[in-house]
Amino acid sequence: MLYSVILPTYNERENLPIITQILHDTFTSAKIKYEIVVVDDSSPDKTLEVAQSLQKIFGKDHIRIVSRPGKLGLGSAYSAGLEASSGQRIILMDADLSHHPKFIPMMIEVMDKSSKTKTGKVDIVSGTRYKRGGGVAGWDTFRKLTSCGANFLATFLLATGGASDLTGSFRLYERAAIVKILPQVESKGYAFQMEILVRAHNDGYKIGEVPITFVDRIYGESKLGANEIIMYLKGLLQLFFTT
Amino acid sequence: RLIKMAGLFLRYHLFLSIGMIFLAIWKAAFENLPAITKAVQSVVTAIVPSATLEQFSTPSLPPDVAIAQGVEEAIRYMPVYAIFVLGMYALSSVLYKVATFEDCKAAAVELNKEIEDAKKKLEAKGFKF
After folding, report:
1. What is the pLDDT of residues A86-97, one digit of tens each?
2. What are the pLDDT digits (tens) for A143-198?
3. B35: helix, coil or strand?
4. Which of B1, B101, B103 sits opposite A204 (nearest CB)?
5. Chain A interface, mutation test: which of B3, B4, B86, B102, most A Cβ atoms within 10 Å?
6. Which chain A residue shows the shortest CA-CA distance from B8?
7. ipTM of this complex
8. Beta strands in A75-197 (DSSP E)
């Protein structure tokens, strides 16, 4: 079975080689066939060239490149990556090393074992920062408060199939599942990841979980402005009234 | 899911129906106020010893009347109390989550080491940083 890792990149020339090497090591020691699909939105820091040199080192069968004319958004980056991928299972994750590839074999195990359990086969394994064994490095109490608050609001207002981390972006999908869900997703920002799980549950897919550690790599910059919060609430309300 | 298949049952419909059920219960409580008051009065006088009751009453406010006033007030402000309980539930859930939130400084340290290892491997393979 081939696993495709889709990595949307924008100005990741420093991190891309590292995550590629770690992914390569993780997959080869677990004896798993893999490919990495880099979807680059014309990064000004020449991430594309970095991707091309990585392709020479790791091989064209391991590294595929999709180059896009500009910053076109995460959703379309995922779609473009999906189209260029050939794996039967898809991993969506961040390219900035906040997600560690070592959790991927754990996710695969959860997915494989689930067919033997009473609750049935899971189609999506979501990395959760909120369960025992997971967590975050680099968050102050205020950040934790907003994250937990947003998550509580979403799990209260929406039907989310028991998922504990709705805004996380590190997940393993069966190809059939993500191909069906992705076109339905309309929101942007933090609500985007949440909407994927809500639509998944709506379509009848089962969601499993693996605790993951998240190392926040955006030091000093504020990723959480008033704008992001408003976009999130809008997305939440939209889903509340339409699903 | 069965309900969804039966028609278009959206998430906000669920909240709407819960709201309507609550309103129905509220209306029923008002309409049966005398009966409810009598029931509460008999339960309280049966459970609480008369000495304690005497302590809490004044000549102008005998126990029965005080209880009747309490019942009326509780029913009148039922929605407020419900929202308050809901708010407390939300607050305690979030605070609990934040209190048990795991900090993984070790992961950050480990990551830095792995970055160094990866850089060495890449340079050995001919990658130029």
Report:
1. 999 999 999 999
2. 999 999 999 999 999 988 889 999 999 999 999 999 999 999 998 888 999 999 99
3. helix
4. B1
5. B102
6. A243
7. 0.85
8. 89-92, 124-128, 135-137, 171-174
